[in-house]
Design a protein that fits this description.
The protein has 365 residues and is an all-alpha fold. It has a single domain, classed as Orthogonal Bundle (ABC transporter involved in vitamin B12 uptake, BtuC), CATH 1.10.3470. Helix content is 74%, strand content 2%. It is built from 16 helices and two strands. Helix 4 runs parallel beside helix 9 and helix 4 packs across helix 13. The longest helix is centred in the N-terminal third of the chain and has 32 residues. It starts with a helix and ends with a helix.
Length: 365
Amino acid sequence: MNYIIEFFGLSPQYTILGKVFSVTAILETVAIILGIILGTAVIVAGSSMFFAKIKNRLSTLQKSIVGNVLFICLGIYLALCPLAGYHEGILTLLCINAVAAMGLSLLTGFTGIFSLGHAGFLALGAYTAAILTLRHGVHWFSAVMAGGVVAMISAWVIGALTLKLVGDYFAIVSIGFGEVIKLVLENWQSFTRGARGIPGITTFTTRHVAVGFFTVMGLLMFNLIYSKHGREFKAVRDDMIAASMMGCNTFRTKTLSLMLSAFYCGVAGALLAGFTSFIQPSIFDMKKSTELTSLVVFGGLGSMSGTLIAASIITLITEIFRDISQYRMLIYGLVLVLIMVLRSEGILGNREMWELSTRRKAVKK
């Protein structure tokens, strides 16, 4: 990096907007991020070309096995790529955000239920894991799973009361749910320490733990959306009345989608608690719910791989511009506006990445 600075005649440090930036640190961050993106792109593009060539030669089961193996290879690559310190933390946070985004994508993108309160499920998972590990000495893995289960049970209760609502009404209810959870956490001083938060949480979410959860839960999610239940989710999203007439129990399907979505967010919240070692109610506010929703819309409603790409892009943007935090959300908003203007259906629309080659061939014909 010093050779590049000397070659181009750059100064080691620059002052922008009152902040001092190290050129070496910026170049190292950009190089590592580009390495991760290029490595991931090569794996995904190679798998897309591979599927395009063998799609007519393999059975559905064989395609599923090949896809699972390739996704595991992606997980192994993320776990073994040479990273350390700050850059390893970025990858860990990216995997946590991706798990939460997959959960919301299942509900909003594949079932057609718009939610603006999923930060409440993140909070339930985070506080459950923190309290169990700190006060009761529960092993971190059991605490993470308990966080997901608590979020899933709360989703079942909310779903039983509200999922008969359609359209924007459930979105309004979800906002209320998220705010209720936040207010309970702020005011239950004896149990949650209120606005002071819970410090000293055991740091159990390492890079390998986060990548492991991302890989396993990603495999389960992609297999789910291509299963019978996944087809039911899409049927409810496209036409609830037609799905009901075909024998689909729409209320049960929506409840299952909400519960699985909450479980993913609960696990992500528990992993976040183990990563930051400190949580407080203000972390899980309306802004956090909006960020999750923007990831799903940014990637494309009905595209799980698009959601993962969006989670990667947004996480990297917010981390790269952390030093100018007062302008970071401005840049974040500008990126969202540009993608909505230039590609209103999101990055991948309603297609998965490996289906793009098939779509191009169909258009040519």
